[in-house]
Amino acid sequence: MNEDIANTETRESRRLKESDKTDNSGATDASKEGEKEPPQAEEGKKGKKHTAPVMGAGIKLVEGAFRGSTRQRDPDTDIFDASNFRQVGTSWWLDRLLPGGVAKYFVTAFVICTVVWLIALTLRLSWVRIEDFWGDVWLFVKDRQWQLQPLLLLVHFVCLRLFKGIYSRNFDRAFQHLDVRKGELNDYKKWFLGNRVNFLALAVAAPFIIWEWVQFATIEKFYETVYGTSDYVQAIDTTVRNPEAFFLLLLWSLEWVMFGYYCYVMVSGAIVVRSILKKHDFKDSVDLVLTERQYRPLFNVTAQAGSLVFLFGLFHAGYMVYTKNTGSDIAGLIVLVVLLGVAFSMTWSAVRGELKGKVLAALENLEDSYRTAREKLGTMHDVPGIEDDIQRIQVQLKMQLALQQLDYLQTKYESLGRKEFLGLVFKMLAPVGSVMARVIRWGSLLAAIGLGGAAAISGGDKGNTQPPAVNQAPADPGDAAAP
């Protein structure tokens, strides 16, 4: 009796210690001694073992997707950094009307866009004969033009502060390798962000605003062009321009003024770079400038502006496709892209012009050094001796070094701007890549959740599809055939 109790305790303790070490057949040490486990426990163990690889794959999927999210962003290259949204000293009237704090700015922009939508709704209800109030409201909500107009206005507000932020914030950094004084840079910044921004932004936007007003006044099918063949167009008199149409035109005019500001900032920024490079030189020698690419900060602002242009163009293209409203919008996008290319070309030509004279002077010195060494090598006689051999080797090394420096300077100078142009393209695509990365990460999380759900479902299946345990005798076919 005591021996049986001792054996039972030994088997129980052994089962507790080795419960997680079952073999492929599901048998434990206790089963080897002739004792059978309950079928429910055995099925639970098999289910747990069956779902472990699936759950492990899901965990690895999530870890791999979110591992890169801990990487810190560089505030100097991130166009969405909070410092780019802060207000700086500028004479741009619209920026001065808006608050300076980041949170206050976004709250104000959101409130303005919401108020614009509510005003348009009020004008719609005041003009249309109200027979079914909620039906008319729902008809306004379904209108594609007013579905995207508040969002498009919000995008304009974001780009408005970002364009100003990246240029003003990177202004001093762009000229850090030039021999220009701080006071002179401040004078250029005042000229850049002075009162002329209001007039020049309006001058750039004026052709597009006039285009919109002419179409508004002359096109017979104005409502069909803007709203399509909706029930609203069928319910109003299309020969008369109602208050909602006037309000929409004013909203377009305001957005074109913001557009003119973007164009002014890009072009005038390139003009400032060109003016400073004509008056000032790089601090270091030309070979060090080309090797360390000290001209790169001059292109960074244009590259970041390219990212904003790409994002704005991408959203605006979606707006045009969704609302089927083209014409002036397409022309505006083309002008914006062309001006971005002009700004980059102006910076590129200014940097090349600044370095051209120094590169040619350095190449001429290297050619003189090579010719001098070659002439000296030709006058040397083949006299046996260690000193003559050492001197000959030194002259040959000097010739080889001059040739390598010539090739290096020419290659660096010819490739100037090539990497910056590729960087402009990649920085334009960087925001989209960041969004796609977030989509992939959260998609991986959803996939992992799906794998976990599938594992739980498969683990909870208690069908009779499991093979019998090793310590369980198979069913006798004769028993099944017996009556």
Topology:
Layout: H1 2-17, H2 29-32, H3 39-66, H4 93-97, H5 102-127, H6 133-141, H7 144-169, H8 171-174, H9 182-192, H10 196-218, H11 222-227, H12 231-235, H13 243-279, H14 286-292, H15 296-323, H16 328-379, H17 386-414, H18 418-459, H19 477-481
What would you say this structure looks like, in words?
With 483 residues, this protein is mainly alpha-helical. It has a domain at 82-354. Helix content is 75%, strand content 0%. It has 19 helices and no strands. It has helices at 2-17, 29-32, 39-66, 93-97, 102-127, 133-141, 144-169, 171-174, 182-192, 196-218, 222-227, 231-235, 243-279, 286-292, 296-323, 328-379, 386-414, 418-459, 477-481. α7 packs antiparallel against α15 (296-323) and α15 runs antiparallel to α16. The longest helix is centred in the C-terminal third of the chain and has 52 residues, at 328-379. It is elongated and about 115 Å long. The two termini are 43 Å apart. Residues 5-10, 19-49, 462-466 and 477-483 have low confidence and may be disordered.
Kindly list the characteristics that best describe this protein:
single chain, 483 residues, elongated, disordered C terminus
Largest sheet: none
- The ordered string of helix (H) and strand (E) elements is HHHHHHHHHHHHHHHHHHH
**Ranges with pLDDT <50 over ≥5 residues?**
5-10, 19-49, 462-466, 477-483
Counting DSSP H or I runs of 4 or more residues, the number of helices is 19
Helical residues, percent: over 70%
Strand content: under 5%
Overall average pLDDT? 74
Gyration radius, in Å = 37 Å
Q: Could you tell me the number of beta strands?
A: 0
